[in-house]
Write a structure and sequence with these properties.
Keywords: Membrane, Mitochondrion, Mitochondrion outer membrane, Repeat, Transmembrane, Transmembrane helix, Transport. The chain is mainly α. It has a single domain (1-97, 119-294), classed as Mitochondrial carrier fold (Alpha/alpha barrel), CATH 1.50.40.10. The chain has helices spanning 2-29, 54-65, 74-98, 114-152, 160-171, 180-204, 213-231, 233-244, 263-273; strands spanning 38-41, 47-51, 285-286, 293-294, 299-300. The protein has a three-stranded antiparallel beta sheet with strand order 1-2-3, with no helix packed on it. A two-stranded antiparallel sheet has the order 4-5. Helix 6 (180-204) runs antiparallel to helix 8 and helix 8 (233-244) crosses helix 9.
Length: 301
């Protein structure tokens, strides 16, 4: 229990510190560009037109809402983090106690093969993460909608309990799970890609006789995690867009944003427009090719 409490406190602290970054990323993901492109230099020193980065965006928000404006949606996000940690811990413990069925064929062995062990551990972690994601997704939806209110200057989602009532009254139970499917798919794919790729690298590319083998393996795990998150980023983007899609906020409907019947339609539209990586980078943001900046709507068309 003490370990779980420590995880909750540490997670809450990191959530508070990273919240402004997530806030700005979400606004970029839904296509809100309040500042005109400016002439700057890329990584190679060449002059190019760029979109405002993290710090310019943050200054714009502070100018309008003050420093406290960078923390819109923090309450429901803290709730999601706390509940998610508790659910993940309980489910992981239950899976560990009951054990996971053998995924690979073959006779039962006293000692699992290394690959089979990775598969079983990843399966247990997948179940725990998925349960935590499903339980906390309503708070995630409320968090995103609190953030997107910045676009239309609404106050529709003002608190956790009031927001719960608003979502249920207007959209029913399904409203709390808008964007859940792509989020789950992205989490599961990212987990499997990361763990299996790290296993292959640690098994076939790293010699156990090398010095600092443990540090090298930890580094490879971090690198594969980053690589997996890059590959599955489109699922995160589509999930966040669908969470605010046609929810009654200006940032989720025409003319500020397209309305999508399903998350697959959203995926296909973003793919056609070349926007599958929108919001992935907060620095050195290049101008979208072939797009025109609309001053009134503060977005590209």
């Amino acid at each position: 229990m003490a370990d779980v409490c420590g995880q909750v406190l540490l997670g809450s602290g990191l959530t508070v510190l990273s919240h402004p970054l997530m806030y700005i990323k979400v606004l970029i993901q839904v296509g809100h560009e309040p500042l005109r492109p400016t002439l700057g230099r890329n990584l190679f020193g060449r002059q190019v037109y760029q979109l405002p980065g993290l710090f310019a965006y943050a200054k714009h928000i502070i100018k309008i809402d003050g420093r406290a404006g960078l923390f819109k949606g923090l309450g429901p996000r803290l709730c999601a983090g706390t509940i998610g940690t508790l659910v993940h811990s309980k489910v992981a413990q239950k899976c560990q106690e009951q054990g996971t069925p053998q995924i690979l064929g073959g006779q039962q062995k006293d000692k699992e093969s290394s690959l089979q062990q990775v598969v079983n551990e990843t399966t247990r972690e997948m179940v725990a993460r998925s349960c935590a994601t499903i339980v906390t997704h309503p708070f995630h939806v409320i968090t995103l909608r609190c953030m997107v209110q910045f676009i239309g200057r609404e106050t529709k989602y003002s608190g956790v309990f009031d927001s719960i009532i608003t979502v249920y009254r207007e959209e029913g139970i399904l409203g709390f799970f808008a964007g859940l499917i792509p989020r789950l798919l992205g989490d599961v794919l990212s987990l499997w890609i990361c763990n299996l790729l790290a296993h292959l690298i640690n098994t076939y590319a790293i010699d156990d006789s090398m010095s600092h083998t443990g540090e090298i393996k930890n580094c490879s795990q971090a690198m594969t995690g980053f690589f997996a998150s890059m590959l599955t980023y489109p699922f995160v983007l589509v999930s966040n867009i669908m969470a605010v899609n046609n929810c009654g906020l200006a940032g989720g409907r025409d003319p500020y944003a397209s309305v999508y019947p399903t998350w697959v339609d959203c995926w296909m539209h973003l793919s056609r427009e070349g926007n599958m990586s929108r919001g992935n980078s907060l620095f050195f943001r290049k101008l979208p090719a072939g797009k025109t900046y609309a001053v009134d709507q503060k977005r590209f068309f």
